[in-house]
Specification:
single chain, 252 residues, alpha/beta, TIM Barrel, 8-stranded parallel β-barrel, 27% strand
Length: 252
């Protein structure tokens, strides 16, 4: 059995970690490098850094933040936010990222995924998919620009298309659950996990080890969280202990 991954997420704005609800009402949550080092010490398997204002401000992710985080950790690092081109991705990889996550730009120009996968490999190309429940019927639609724009694009179909284009993983965030600490959207997670042949990272709504266990049983290959780590409600080590007690294989 493959081991699952526990992934803390650092949403970053202006060089600081921030956290909010549904991508708004952001509050300061600390220094990125300091937080990253602490999470690695707890046993984090990977780390995700998302520059939450890069796309809306039409700029690239701040490379100094990426360098600082890379200098504090040795575990795999995924970085996203404002990636619109090969040059943007290459700059992040050079600064210390191992993987690059693409969201809004991939929706606008799907061929960007093909280009990134051809140039850097699928293992470096991550689709960051933010999904919200439809207001006009069943299912979920893709939202972009930090959730401010509903696209009408079916989330499951888009995840499947992205995998065909070369995305090696799907970082799946429920916009409805983000920051609410009400648990992952298990129906969304199950639908996307069944619709793609690549690993799916569950994101949005985690408040407990039970929520993570539920997500893994719903089809996730990894679980990502932010608030529960930033607010020191739990640690990666305690989450792994709980999962291990429930017969989930985790990395030491």
């Amino acid at each position: 059995m493959l081991t699952v991954r526990i992934i803390p997420c650092l949403d970053v704005k202006d060089g600081r970690v921030v956290k909010g609800v549904r991508f708004s009402n952001l509050r300061d949550a600390g220094d990125p490098a300091q937080q990253a080092g602490a999470y690695e010490a707890q046993g984090a398997d990977e780390l995700v850094v998302l520059d939450v204002s890069a796309t809306t401000e039409a700029r690239a992710t701040r490379l100094d933040t990426v360098r600082a985080v890379r200098g504090a950790i040795s575990i795999p690092l995924t970085v996203g936010g404002g990636v619109r081109s090969i040059a943007d991705a290459e700059a992040l990889l050079t600064a210390g990222a191992d993987k690059v996550a693409v969201n809004s730009a991939a929706v606008e120009t799907p061929d960007l995924l093909n280009t990134l996968a051809d140039r850097f490999g699928s293992q470096c190309t991550i689709l960051a998919l933010d999904a919200a429940r439809r207001t006009d019927g069943p299912g979920w639609e893709v939202v972009v620009r930090s959730g401010s724009t509903r696209t009408g694009l079916d989330a499951v179909d888009w995840a499947s298309d992205a995998a065909r284009r070369g995305a090696g993983e799907v970082l799946l965030t429920s916009w409805d659950r983000d920051g609410t600490r009400s648990g992952y959207d298990l129906d969304l997670l199950n639908a996307v996990s069944r619709g793609v042949p690549v690993p799916v990272i569950a994101s949005g709504g985690a408040d407990s080890a039970q929520h993570m266990l539920d997500a893994l049983r719903a089809g996730a290959d990894a679980v990502l969280a932010a608030s529960i780590f930033h607010d020191a409600d739990t640690t990666v080590a305690s989450l792994k202990s709980f999962l291990r007690d429930h017969s989930i294989e985790v990395r030491p």
